DNA sequence: CTTCAACCACTAAAATTTTCATTTTTTATC
DNA sequence: GATAAAAAATGAAAATTTTAGTGGTTGAAG
């Protein structure tokens, strides 16, 4: 599940990113309203955690705008304001829930789970299927036709980034960044070795890993 | 050398962080003026790369404020503005150099090197000394009385974060974050094993690693 | 002052990642 | 098509990281 955090305070934002990441969610974050709006418009987030007080564009405007643009990401509003009116306005503007600051992380977690259960419109994508392979980014499991394939951490991350691209080419530098961040680098050869290892593991359970190479560009899943 | 990047545009900011990190600098970044001001005031940056157009507090105000507060970090201004007046104002307000957007990364690199050479007031701290141990964060080397000690990547990062704290306690979670980021975790046991390994290596060249444990809190360098 | 439990240090072994060398595949060109 | 050059895949060794287990220290409670 992809979550966008739009929160002014650096400290809270950071805490949310760390906490939510640890719960297995994919998280992006920004402290700026207009940056948040852009991210929300051009990516498909399952959930947006939205502060109302933001630089450049305030949260309520952001929310109204994305709803106008037919973005159906779930939205949880965070705010220091407490009036009933605000809550009503927020819900009218298309929010799914409302949390008054300060709040505990567990409280937020509970709300997320509750929204996740309700789950009507939005399709929460923590499971990626390609041919007969199933990657569960929440459970960190990988399987071929009900045969579990045991992947190491880096192997998993590489498959995750390639599978997530759903048919688009992912460059080795992009893969490297996803696996070790931008301070480190994973060599091309190392990525190849990992892929080679995953292919071998897939073959052991009778499958053929649907990851192809685009010479000079990177890797992609081959749709069948 | 510690660099702070205060730049509104997410894209440019990211490029700068990646580029400068790759050159071996320690980089922090923010897109917000007031956040930048706080960071500049409460950390000792060797260099601040400063955009003038910022949300909340504009770059010029930030610069004037930190100079009033006797912060002597070097400052390179980035700006889309081009008038001579602006340059003069910037330099008067205490900037060390001025770069007009768009600029190439190499150009910025050259200015940084030039400032680094001039280096009068600010003491560029890419070398951390503790007792007879010398850690060079630029060259990624570690030595005891001229004996080079060969550290692996994680060993180096652990020593770096502990040495950088200059006597303050660093928690294992902080160490973990510095080494593998907040998406991953380095277990306490693993950190201990690495430290143990570094201690052994230090002993091999006749030194005693000045890293002590504060039971329940973390590690610190023991000043002697 | 003693005891106990929690915490830490260390070692060795296991697991993972990375590198190196070699083979295979792909693509461009004749 | 044949051939050569470049890129990718592979297998195996080397290096690094992580885990598990053991023994030692510390500090709090009785």
Give a quick set of tags describing it:
five-stranded parallel sheet; 224 residues; alpha/beta; 42% helix; four-stranded antiparallel sheet; DNA-binding; homodimer; 2 domains; Arc Repressor Mutant, subunit A; Rossmann fold
Task: Please indicate the count of domains of chain A.
Answer: 2
Largest protein interface, residues of each chain = A-B, 16 and 15 residues
- The helix count of chain A comes to 8
Quickly name the level 1 CATH class of the largest domain in chain A: Alpha Beta
Measured on Cα atoms, how large is the radius of gyration of chain A? 20 Å
**Overall form of chain A:** elongated
User: How many runs of DSSP E, i.e. beta strands of chain A?
Assistant: 11
CATH superfamily of the largest domain in chain A: Response regulator
CATH architecture of the largest domain in chain A: 3-Layer(aba) Sandwich
Biggest β-sheet: strands ordered side by side in the sheet of chain A: 2-1-3-4-5
- Poorly predicted regions of chain A are none
CATH structural fold name of the largest domain in chain A = Rossmann fold
